[in-house]
Amino acid sequence: MLDRKVKGLGLPILYLDFDGVLHPEHCYWHPRKGPYLKAPGHSLFEHLALLESLPEPHPEVRIVLSTTWVQACQFSGTARKLGSTLRPRVIGATFHTGMDKDGFRDMPRGLQVMGDVARRLPSTWIALDDDPTGWPADARDKLVLTHGLHRLGEDRAQVELKVKLQTLASKNTS
Fold first, then answer.
1. Does pTM top 0.90 for this prediction?
2. CATH architecture entry for 12-173
3. How far apart are CA 62 and CA 72, in angstroms?
């Protein structure tokens, strides 16, 4: 049975991780201070402006958060981190209330995303992530894999994301 409350049905979706994508993967959580990096010379969300520019020509593409930040900051707090340009595109997260938090956290990222794809039924999708674990062979072509240290700042990752976003948008109009 189709859940009508699920957003994204028939839309092109970008599944977005934060750590290792928008900033180095060495991000930690302090109960009073919140998120912080152990990566000298880097800052949280240092590649946010770059991410804002890449999907700009494709307004139909929506974003689903596939980051552990949702469990720490809740959905709305995590979505706000993306700022006023990307925030309106965010329609949900792979983790949502009602899920077993520990079981979800122990599941490989690829399986988390595949579960959401099965629930959300987008027209087409891609994922931007630094974790290659758990991606089924038939979905690996949808993954834009960033290197945890170089992140989205790596030219190869930018070019691949740009091409896959164009493909995502064109498949939605065909």
1. yes
2. 3-Layer(aba) Sandwich (3.40)
3. 22
